[in-house]
Amino acid sequence: MNLMRFALNSLLRRPARTILTVSAIALGIAAIVALTSIAWGFEASWQKANDARGTDLIVTRTSSENTMPSPFRAEKVQVVLRTLPHVQEVVGLLSELLSVSADGPPVFVFGWLYDSYLWDHLKLSQGRWPTDDKESVVVIGALAAEMLNKKIGDHVEIEGKSFLVSGIFESNAVVENGAVIMTLAQAQLVTDKPGKVNVLNIKVDGSTNEADLRHIKQQVKQTLPGYIAITSGELVSKNAVVIISKAMSSATILIASLVGALVVFNTMLMSINERTREIGILLALGWQRITIMKLIFSEAVMLTVLGGMMGIFGGVAIAWGLEHVELMRGKIDALFSVPFFFAVLGLSVFLGICGGIYPAYKASRLLPSAALRHE
Amino acid sequence: MMRVGIFILELFSSMAYAEPLTISAQDIAAKMSSAKYSNGFEVRMNVFVTKANGAHPLPMKLAVIGQMAADKQRLLIRGISPKAIRGHFVAAERIGDVRVIKFQTTNNSSKLDPYSQLFNSGLVIWDMFSPWWGWSTQILQGRERINKHECERIHSRTNDLRSVVQEVESCVDIHDRISLRTRLYDSQHVLLRTASVQNFMRKSQGLLAAKKLTIVGADQSKTEIEIYSGDEEYQVTAETFAALEHPSRNEQRKVR
Known about the structure:
By secondary structure, chain A is α+β, with helices and mostly antiparallel strands. Chain A has helices at 3-12, 15-52, 74-82, 142-148, 174-177, 184-190, 210-223, 232-238, 240-274, 276-284, 289-323, 338-364, 368-373, and strands at residues 57-61, 72-73, 87-98, 107-112, 123-127, 137-141, 155-158, 161-170, 180-183, 196-197, 199-204, 227-230. Chain B is globular. Chain B has helices at residues 2-17, 25-35, 125-128, 242-245, and strands at 38-50, 60-68, 73-81, 89-95, 98-104, 109-110, 137-146, 149-157, 167-173, 178-185, 191-202, 208-217, 222-231. At the A-B interface, strand 2 and strand 3 of A face strand 1, strand 2, strand 3 and strand 13 of B.
């Protein structure tokens, strides 16, 4: 019988404890997988939305750290931005998280400048786009249409004003798929923010390189005090929700790791105490101390590998479930990757090794004569 | 050893609690008055009312536009939804002690007592001006901890017998210039209502503002208010407070 089979049999001899330990580890790993994938997914989804629009730089207020940056008057800023080298287009965007039905959850409502490049990446699946910026119509994402139970010709009420649903679109970004989009002029009207935007999107010409982008950022800093030009990734990483969700994810990793290591430590220590005579017999039969250590480590690693795998499945299921909760639909898009799963499994094994160090050392230091006398 | 540890902990906690306050109640009141100064702001809020009998009227959405200066303060509260209050608004102004109030519904305009409840909720326009920070009597009453925030209890009292509210007890987070809990009493020291802040948001200037607050009335009716949108630099135009410019004589009221 090889060492691994021996270790496995030891675990199977105490099924209740093994199941409890694996479950505790699986719960911790599931929490890590779910929270981390949601935090990353939230960030990636916003970045995907910004990137899909073809925006190279975003200009916003320096104090903007909320989900929706503070609105500002676009006109003067736009004039300055248009004079900067390589800047091809400067387009305003206004966004709010608003309820569009009496009983439905709030959705993102975007106001995009009519006929600007922001609309180009959307695929219209039904209906039509707004014909001008005076028309009180909205187009809604496929996911939003499903969530709000709306079709072409229906009306949605936004901030007390009725809008006709003229089209349904699809986007690569879940944030946009779950959103309602109208022209900027209509959004400014309905939210009583005439001439205001949350962000200005800058599109640069094809000859622009990284150094040019840095130069534009520098120029904005110097010529527009209180404003900042950043990439979509930088904007998203400054977002309070992203910062909080990442902090929560890090805290969960820390707590789950500590709990996981302690669970393994406790289980292995109890196991050794119960198996003192058995270990004494193995030592008396000529097992080396290093082999005893390997046995304990093998058991700890088996527990954490199994717990880690179950936790990964559990975490994916939790994230999937949260994505489909009414309140969260269209707002989160959990992001998974094979390297992430391996990293989580690696963390789980690491916990097993950490939790097994002292029990393995303790087992290997047993004296056969004393162990055999142990009741 | 453990006793020593407890003693040290107690010592530190009492030191923290007994930290002398270097600011007077009048100074805090002055700071609270100036904290609301703004060339123009707009907040939009969801208002959920629970009546004393447990009934829940339809949730409301209101927009509040304000312009606050030391000499003149103006507010416009506009109904967004449901349909029953859409287009209705209340315009109010405070110049010194005087307030001019106009209540406009879809079809007619009328006068409105500044102490009456707006849109059948716990919102009272008089409270929204927080005039008690200008009262002559301000007394510090000690420190308290509400929602993990340290706050100073301040008792404000007026000598003006015409005022429905005679005393106000606030617990103020001095650093962030926000009252975490405000209790309003009448001349018999009967509690009229309590406004408590549950959740905060950080304004661009760095100070905290209420994001979620609850007003509990004397009859135990509850009004929960949640801010869902805001503009700290709202562009006030000539039309914004036009309702206050030429109100008819019977729509004017002088209230101290």
